[in-house]
C-alpha cells in the first residue's frame, strides 16, 4: 500500500514538472498549429530560427553539426565573388598590361660591352634545382588557382560546361598535389637565399633609379638587386608563408576547423595568392626577356664577367676576390655606407 501511494505521488510530481516545463512552449506550439491550418505552406519562423544561427537537436553530436545555415557564409560568398574576384582580377590584368607596355616601349636591356668569354658561377646546382621546383610548382598553382577564382566567368563560356568541369576537377587535383611540393621548396629556398637578400644601403640608390630600366643605365648592386630583394621578402617570405599556412588549413579541414575558420583562411589564401601572382609576373619578366642573359644565369648557373660587372658590380668584385683576382684600379668597391 505504501509503495502504491509513493508511486502515485511520484507520478503527480513528474506530471506537474512536465506540465510546468511545457508551459513556455505552449504559445509557440499553438501558434504553429494555427499557422498550419490558416497558412499551411508558411514555414518562415522555422527558417528564421535556422538563419539566426541557433543550433538544433541532432542524434550525432559534433562540431557545428546542429547548425544548418551560417549567416556568415553568405557574407563570405559575396566578398569572394565580389570585391575579391573583381579587384584581384583587375590587379593581375593591370600588372600584365604595364609589363607589356614597358617591353614594347623600352625593349630588352642589352649589354653595353662585348662578352669576355670568362664565366663566374652565380648559382649552385642546389640553388637552381630548388628555384626550378618552386617556379614550376608556382606556375601550376597559379594557373589552377586562377581557374578556381575566374574560371566560371572567363573559361567556362569559352570551352563549355563539360570541358570546364573536367579541367576544374583536374585543376583541383593538381593544386592539392603541388601545394605541399611548393611548401617544401620554400622551406629549402629561404635559408639558401636569405643571406644574400639582406638590405644594404646601396639598394636605396637602385630603387631611386628604378634599377636603370628607365634609362637603360646600369646601377651597381650586390648579388641580388633591390628589386630581387623586394620579391624575396614580400613574395617568397610574406606571401609564400601566408599561402602555405592557409593552404594547409584548407587542404586538411579534418583537424577541428570550423566553417568560419575555413572562410577566414580562404580569404587570406586568395588575397595573398593574387598578390603573389601579381608580383611574380614582374619577377618572371625581369628574369626572362627584360634583361639580356638573365634567364641563362638561372638555367646554366653561370654568367659572363661582362654581365656580372654591368648588372651586379659589387657582387662581381666579391666573386673575383674569391677567385684571388684583384679589383682593377678605377673600379668602385662595395661600400656599406654608400647612400
Most strands sheet: 2 strands, antiparallel
Structural category is mainly alpha
In the CATH scheme, the class of the largest domain would be Mainly Alpha
Point out poorly predicted stretches. 16-24, 334-339
The CATH architecture of the largest domain would be Up-down Bundle
Would you write up a description of this structure?
The chain is mostly helical. The chain has two domains: 2-42; 75-322, Fumarate Reductase Cytochrome B subunit. The protein is built from eleven helices and two strands. The protein has helices spanning 2-22, 26-38, 44-51, 71-106, 125-193, 203-208, 226-251, 259-286, 294-300, 305-311, 313-322, and strands spanning 119-121, 302-304. Strands 1-2 form a two-stranded antiparallel ribbon. Helix 4 (71-106) runs parallel beside helix 8 and helix 10 (305-311) crosses helix 11. The longest helix has 69 residues, at 125-193. The radius of gyration is 32 Å and the shape is elongated. The N and C termini lie far apart (105 Å). Mean pLDDT is 82; it is low at 16-24 and 334-339.
Topology:
Layout: H1 2-22, H2 26-38, H3 44-51, H4 71-106, E1 119-121, H5 125-193, H6 203-208, H7 226-251, H8 259-286, H9 294-300, E2 302-304, H10 305-311, H11 313-322
Antiparallel strand pairs: 1-2
